[in-house]
Amino acid sequence: MSRTALGMPAVRPVRGQGNLHAETAFPAAARAEMGNTQMRANIRHATHTIRGKRANVVNELPDWQALRSAGSALKESVMANLPELLEQFEANVTARGGTVHWARDAAEANRIITNLVQATGSTEAIKIKSMATAEIDLERHLAEHGITATETDLAELIVQLGHDRSSHILVPAIHKNRHEIREIFLREMTETDESLTSEPRDLAEAARAHLREKFLSTKVAISGANFGVAETGTLTVVESEGNGRMCLTLPETLITVMGIEKLVPTFADLEVYLQLLPRSSTGERMNPYTSMWTGVTPGDGPQDVHVVLLDNGRSAVLSDPAGRSALHCIRCSACLNVCPVYEQAGGHAYGSTYPGPIGAILSPQLTGITSAENASLPYASTLCGACYDVCPVKINIPEILVHLRDEDVRTKHGQRPAADAVPTEDGATAALQTPAGPQGTAENIGGGRSTGSASGPAPGRVRRLFQRLPHPPSEMDLMMKGASMVMSSGRRMALAERALPLGRAVAGHDRRISWLPGMAGGWTDVRDIPAPPRESFRNWWAQHADETQDRVRADGTVPDADPAQPTDPHQVKEGDR
């Protein structure tokens, strides 16, 4: 029996909750992380190794681009038919003895899972690595209700024992080296012998011994799912260590958390993704362990099977035609391994379960660009396009990043309805921004207008009103407004060019500017700016245009200039000023 709560079509989709909201804006977080040279070295070594392996196995397939196209087309089809596929999946899971639960957000998912574990009478659960459970912060919620969830994936176990946070989609402990891992094991696993070395084989054996008793004694397992097959109700988990197979077969109760976008229409469609995923993630031809299960099999494996279908903002992403392809992601992490920003800043700087390029487009869409911290993520990219080149399902990440930057600008500067007007102290109403449609207007830079007086409020009142605005103009607002005023007039532009010597005055002996104040320091923080020339091209042209034209006419290469056209660029029409 399943419990369905799809809601009404008119209900606005909920936004994502849980480990999706950054606490610090990306620039500040990245600056702090970049001071950790050991972390950066660890990430560089690991990502370069993985992407080298990926390149080798991808080059073996002559039809790799056709596979990518097939994977992308299948995901497009799933997004177009998602409601029907979800209902088909639910019906097939239910028909085979499973129970389907629908969770609109992280809080509802956590409540469902906690109730299911408590119903078994157990206070322990074992977990398979799952981005969905990390997204909803399930481990913390279970702990608050007296339930201990033990990670069984080696990298996730390292993060858990180290009281740390994951920094990579595929390898959560990518920021740790083997010597640091040894210290964590000795400190947290009390049964570990002091003679433990830093050799990978010894570390894996220590983790195996620690987990073996958990596998054999725990009655509840919690997993994610790489894919769900709508046609049959089958769930699929791919992994490399065998811990997943243990969790899926030994416990009595199995609870699977799956994002609603993880469906494929038919069993045959798995063929495409089971070729794309291992090559793009671990650089292998196939995953060592591919586990599939369909409902309950009497006398074999878990006899109480539950599937929690998680929305948590996905419906909101689906409603955006320009950004919905972010839901195509199969969590391979190939984009992280080629991203120059991720390599330098690491995963923690993103502040979300989803780091790297895919996190920069997925997290803000799941939560909505509602805070300065998450709004900074679409800017955490050079737009070099390397992520798009390696994505196995052809997600155009740079295009979505630009789209989200546009959304951020519209959120900050776009028009608000008149209902958002703010009453002033004298009883008048000051509209924050003129309601002129979604495109916005340049007139909102200076705040609103008072309707209390035809001649406008006094300067002091304007200043006080401006200070009370919930969204006062930023330095960027003021700079762009100033640039617009200067560049829209030839006369003002000429006056501004006369200030070029000031730029040369602040340059160093090497004729480069290495420091600028305020927001302009964003350029000089990471690069030097060449000193401006002694004379602008416009001034040079105004002084030499006549002799240049004479020389050209003497060469016979162009006809005489139209005498009606001014040769002086400063001679502009009055209407152009």
Protein architecture, described:
This protein has 577 residues and is an alpha/beta fold. Among the domains are: 61-312, NagB/RpiA/CoA transferase-like (Rossmann fold, 3-Layer(aba) Sandwich), CATH 3.40.50.10420; 418-468, no CATH class; 488-577, no CATH class. It is built from 25 helices and 14 strands. The protein has helices at residues 26-33, 37-58, 64-80, 82-95, 106-120, 131-135, 138-144, 154-161, 178-188, 200-217, 243-249, 270-281, 314-318, 334-338, 340-345, 356-367, 372-375, 386-390, 397-413, 459-468, 475-487, 490-497, 500-506, 521-524, 537-555; strands spanning 99-103, 124-127, 148-151, 220-223, 227-229, 234-239, 253-259, 263-264, 289-293, 304-310, 422-423, 429-430, 512-513, 529-530. The strands form 4 sheets. It has a 6-stranded parallel beta sheet, with helices on both faces. Strands 8-5-6-9 form a 4-stranded mixed beta sheet. A two-stranded antiparallel sheet has the order 11-12. Helix 3 packs across helix 12 and helix 16 runs parallel beside helix 19 (397-413). The relative contact order is 0.11.
Protein traits:
10% strand, 577 residues, four-stranded mixed β-sheet, Rossmann fold, alpha/beta, elongated, disordered C terminus
Task: Give the helices and strands, then pairings.
Blueprint: H1 26-33, H2 37-58, H3 64-80, H4 82-95, E1 99-103, H5 106-120, E2 124-127, H6 131-135, H7 138-144, E3 148-151, H8 154-161, H9 178-188, H10 200-217, E4 220-223, E5 227-229, E6 234-239, H11 243-249, E7 253-259, E8 263-264, H12 270-281, E9 289-293, E10 304-310, H13 314-318, H14 334-338, H15 340-345, H16 356-367, H17 372-375, H18 386-390, H19 397-413, E11 422-423, E12 429-430, H20 459-468, H21 475-487, H22 490-497, H23 500-506, E13 512-513, H24 521-524, E14 529-530, H25 537-555
Parallel strand pairs: 1-10, 2-3, 2-4, 4-7, 5-8, 7-10
Antiparallel strand pairs: 5-6, 6-9, 11-12, 13-14
Helix pairs in contact: 3-12, 9-10, 16-19
